[in-house]
Write a structure and sequence with these properties.
Distance between the termini: 25 Å
Order of helices and strands: HEEHHHEEHH
Shape: elongated
Number of strands: 4
Helix content: 55-70%
Structural class: alpha+beta
Radius of gyration: 28 Å
Strand order of the largest sheet: 1-2-3-4
Length: 194
C-alpha cells in the first residue's frame, strides 16, 4: 500500500506524462475539500448535527429520569418496604435502562441511514461531475490526493478512454494462454467505469 501511494504521488506530481509516445493527462482531487465546500454536503452535515442534538437532548432527559428514579429507589428503606413494591421499582428501572439503550441504538441507526441515503445522492453527483470533467478535458486518470490509510474510497476517481485493461497481457506474460474466468469489473473499475 505504501509503495502504491508513493507511486501515485509521483504520478500526480506531473500533470502530464508521456507513455509510449502518447501524452497522458493526469489530475488529482482533494475529494474531502470538494465535499466540505459543496453546499448540499454542508446542508446534510447540518441536518445530521441538528438531528443528533435533538436525540442527545432526549437521551439527556431519559438519563435524568432514570437517575431520579434510581436515587429514589436507593433511598427506600429496604427492610420496611414490601417486596412487591421493591420488585416493581426494580422492574421500572430495568425498563427505563432498556428504553435508553433502545433509543440510543435507534437514533444512531436513524442518523446513519439518513446520512447514507442522502450522501449517496451527493456522491453520485460529485462522481458524475468528476467523470464529465475528466472526459471533457481529456484526462487519462484523476486520482484522490487526500487518501489516508483508513479511507475506503477509491484511489482512482476517473479513468478515461486512454486507460487500457492489460489483464490478458499480464496473463500471457505469466504463461497463461487461455483465461478460465471471465474478467469482472469489480471494486475500483466497477466504481469508475459505470
Amino acid at each position: 500500500m505504501k509503495n502504491l501511494i508513493v507511486l501515485l504521488i509521483a504520478l500526480m506530481s506531473c500533470s502530464q506524462t508521456q507513455v509510449m509516445g502518447q501524452i497522458l493527462k493526469l489530475g488529482y482531487i482533494d475529494q474531502q475539500f470538494v465535499y466540505d465546500n459543496f453546499p448540499e454536503y454542508q446542508l446534510l452535515r447540518k441536518e445530521i448535527e441538528g438531528s443528533s442534538a435533538k436525540y442527545q437532548e432526549v437521551l439527556k432527559e431519559k438519563y435524568a429520569q432514570y437517575q431520579q428514579k434510581l436515587d429514589a429507589y436507593q433511598k427506600l428503606p429496604k427492610g420496611q418496604v414490601a417486596p412487591l413494591i421493591l420488585k416493581d421499582k426494580e422492574t421500572e428501572l430495568v425498563n427505563l435502562q432498556q428504553s435508553i439503550q433502545e433509543f440510543q441504538s435507534n437514533s444512531e441507526k436513524d442518523l446513519q441511514l439518513t446520512y447514507q441515503k442522502k450522501f449517496a445522492v451527493i456522491e453520485e453527483k460529485v462522481k458524475g461531475v468528476i467523470a464529465d470533467y475528466g472526459q471533457e478535458n481529456k484526462y487519462a486518470y484523476i486520482f484522490r490526493s487526500d487518501l489516508r490509510a483508513e479511507d475506503s474510497w477509491p484511489i482512482v476517481l476517473f479513468a478515461g478512454a486512454q486507460a487500457v485493461d492489460i489483464s490478458k497481457e499480464i496473463l500471457l506474460k505469466l504463461g497463461v494462454t487461455a483465461a478460465t474466468a471471465p474478467p469482472i469489473k469489480a471494486g475500483l473499475l466497477k466504481m469508475i467505469k459505470k
